[in-house]
Amino acid sequence: MIEAGMLLSWLQTWSGPISEVLAACGGWYAKVARDHAQVRRDRLDAGTQALQLVASYQARETALIAERERSLAYEMDARARARIAADVLQEVHAEAISARVRCHDLEMRAGLPLTDFPLFPDFPFREVSLPVQVATQEEHRTNSDGCIKPEKEPA
């Protein structure tokens, strides 16, 4: 068996080198643990940045979709108003032709010379495709009739 005194003298002799080896191993392990923790932090930071980037892209896409929907709604509104205006114009055109025929009929019955009316343009008109300028929501306001009108009145 090993005697206690011999063990103590051996420890006293080798305590300096053993302490240095243990300190070096502890320092190396601490550096490895710190580097491993830093790698995990970097991964978490990269994941957080990726999530923030995805969130910003989703917010941008949502804003673009909303703007596109507003743009399409204004375009559909403009086309509906054009269709309504064309219907009204068609009725006015038909009434004007009817009035001209009635006037000629009355003049013929009275034996008067027929009135020379200016010619009406053909109806329906040929569509001329013009670029549709769609305004944003801020540029329009709704009046009491529910019609969209420009925010600034022309001077």
Q: What is the share of helical residues?
A: 55-70%
Q: What kind of assembly state do the chains in view correspond to?
A: single chain
Total domain units: 1
Overall spatial form = rod-shaped
- In terms of structural class, how would the helical and strand content be classed? mainly alpha
Give me the count of strands: 2
Approximate strand percentage: under 5%
The low-pLDDT segments are: 140-145
Q: Whole-number radius of gyration?
A: 45 Å
What's the mean pLDDT score? 80
End-to-end Cα distance: 114 Å
The description of the largest β-sheet is:
2 strands, antiparallel
Number of helices: 1
- Write the H/E string, N to C: HEE
- Main sheet: strand order: 1-2
Give a brief outline of the structure:
This protein is mainly alpha-helical and 155 residues long. The chain has one helix spanning 4-110, and strands spanning 140-142, 148-150.
Which descriptors apply to this entry?
single chain; 155 residues; mainly alpha; two-stranded antiparallel sheet
Can you walk me through this structure?
This protein has 155 residues and is mainly α. The protein has one domain. It is 69% helix and 4% strand. It has a two-stranded antiparallel ribbon. A hairpin with a 5-residue loop joins strand 1 and strand 2. The longest helix is centred in the middle third of the chain and has 107 residues. The radius of gyration is 45 Å and the shape is rod-shaped. The protein starts with a helix and ends in a 5-residue tail after the last strand. About 4% of the residues have low confidence.
